[in-house]
Amino acid sequence: MATYIAKRLIQGLVVLLGVSMICFIIFRYMGDPVLTMAGKYATFQEREEVRRALGLDKPTYVQYARFIWNAAHGNFGKSYISRVPALGLILERFPATFELATTATLLAFLMGVGLGVLVALKPRAWQNRLIMAGSLGGISMPTFLIGILLIMIFAVYAGVLPPFGRGQTVTIGFWRTGLLTVDGWKHLIMPAVTLATFQLAVLLRLTRAGMREVLTEDYIKTAWAKGLPPLKVIFKHALRNVLIPVVTVAGLQFGEVIAYSIVTETIFQWPGMGNLILTSIFESDQPVVVTYIMLAAFMIISINTIVDILYAILNPKIRYA
Amino acid sequence: MRERRIKSKLLSSFLHDPSAMLGSVIVALFIFAAVAAPWITPQNPYDLKAVSLEHFLTPPIWMKGGQTPYVLGTDDQGRGIYSTIVYGCRTSIIVGFGVVLLAGSFGVTMGLLAGYYGGWLDIVVMRCADTLFSFSTTLMAFLLMGVLKQRGIVTVILAICLADWVRYARTMRGSVLEVKEAAYIMAAKATGARDWRLLLRHLLPNAIPPVMVVVAVDLGVAIMLEATLSFLGVGVPMTQPSLGMMIAIGKNYIYAGMWWMIVFPGLALVMLVVGINLFADWLREELNPKLERR
Description:
The complex is a heterodimer of chains A (about 325) and B (about 290).
Chain A: H1 2-29, H2 33-38, H3 44-53, H4 60-72, H5 86-121, H6 126-140, H7 143-157, E1 170-172, E2 175-177, H8 182-214, H9 218-225, H10 230-252, H11 254-268, H12 273-282, H13 286-314
Antiparallel strand pairs in A: 1-2
Helix pairs in contact in A: 1-13, 5-6, 5-8, 5-10, 5-11, 5-13, 6-8, 7-8, 7-11, 8-10, 8-11, 9-10, 10-13, 11-12, 12-13
Chain B: H1 2-15, H2 18-35, H3 37-40, H4 81-117, H5 119-135, H6 137-147, H7 153-179, H8 183-190, H9 195-207, H10 209-232, H11 243-251, H12 260-287
């Protein structure tokens, strides 16, 4: 097991290094940082000065080594637009994205697994067919459309929920949270539902398929025959075995959640990281874009590694050499 | 012989599944609309001569203020919503099939080679697959499009393909690993068949069925992804029609109660993808041996 964990960690590091190389290329060759820093009307001498100050006159491998060294120390340079460190700019937005993503994931997981079990028990009942039809809609409807339709229905026509922003927030230490005020929750409902829908439909379908397979197994028939209470058979015997792949997929979908949080935050003007990245892309703010990619890669790879290791621990069937 | 039996079995099951038929009828209709766009629309909304700004923001024809050629109303540039939807579906269909063809053929080739030869190629392909998977197709395509400054249909297709080919490679590789052990492959090997013959004549046709499910699902994924990218403003340029961009424009008028600019393109997009997914669901149940005992 120790070798497996070590192997997995090294793999993660290699991937991170690959991502950093791509980021370096973006940083160095997409748009001219000198022109951006010095301004259009700078003289040749001024430009050379900026070039030297940024270390762009050194050979490429030296620049890359410096990039890695700085990145490892959390220094990704300053934003071209607001002239403050890019990492700080992004981390300031982290709590908003974290609260949104966590709420959405919890919602998707609880509803997805719950409904999945329900549907698997009586696949032919009309309510359950309706749920399955809904899940087909859920995977066929792009996130941005769900968000806009929700705004249209609940904010524009019904006028019961606020259409954008995060509402009233409370600051605890460095963490600015919206979860402690009623207003904050009101603002959270629509974005969270929007972000949860896709995941919910996927987890529902996965749980249903898994339950349908497991429910035909002999040990479940034995459990029924023993006269165990239905809840125990369903949740303790059947669901436990289905849950391992479901949790794994939920973990692996983390990248998807980050991607859709960009869409959701843009629609609802949610002041999170996703909103920032889109603005930065339009403004060609390379340091912020690169920092975001590195940070997202770091989070995704960490979560995947943790999920993989947990999977190996939880599933006794799999033995890794 | 074996192949023909499978095909006729598939066909009869298809003809007995109303939702699969409905799905393929929907998809066929959309493909027809995409091909016949100039003949079934009153104007080409991207031909500046055909559009007049006077008719901007008119509601659908059955509402007060509706005007005759614009059945579903117009947008802020005076483009008819119906015409723009039909032309937008063209983009959707081109991107969808472009991605499936390009990513599919590259992914299947890589999966075939990785599964058959193993070794370092296998390691590289699977590492790529793991990495791209954890990043998710959407995030990858978004970041690629965001960083690229040249935006157009071709770039969108390439960005999605780059993020997406591993789906095919992974499925194909798994399928090849299974088929590789079959007796007829051994027999072909024993008769001294060359590698390329083995790959193309024996492995490819027998290992491809699971990939067909990926093709069907991916078609819908690619179409939604193009709409999402265009909605965010990193997809096709302003000068080209796209359902995603229509909805992005409609979003500016959401508080003015001009729902037709969002609802109709949204409906078209969802219908197309539901059609594809209905077909994909049927295909999955048909080709998944695990569910056969049901």
